[in-house]
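=== RUN LOG ===
request id: a7f3
mode: sequence -> structure
chains: 1
length: 88
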Amino acid sequence: MKYVNAQHVLPEELLQEVQRYVQGETLYVPRTVHDKKRWGTVSGGRQLLEQRNEAIRLSFAKGTRVEELAADYHLAVTTIRKIVYSSN
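=== RESULT ===
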């Protein structure tokens, strides 16, 4: 998270109003709901999981047993089943 001086970004009237409630403190202003990004989209984690899940599905389609996939990917058997039987 990057620190931004409120004097540099807020109009004077708004700054004075904020100062009525908070002075000399760090204040977090959250993103609006429509501006939030889904988990893993910035870091690339979501893409890595999608690639892993696709590899699991391909191995399963080629005949690898669910138990083997669970051991290979260090996941629970139920998790592997969710991945291979999902409609993604």
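=== NOTES ===
The radius of gyration is 23 Å.
The chain has a mean pLDDT of 90.
=== END ===
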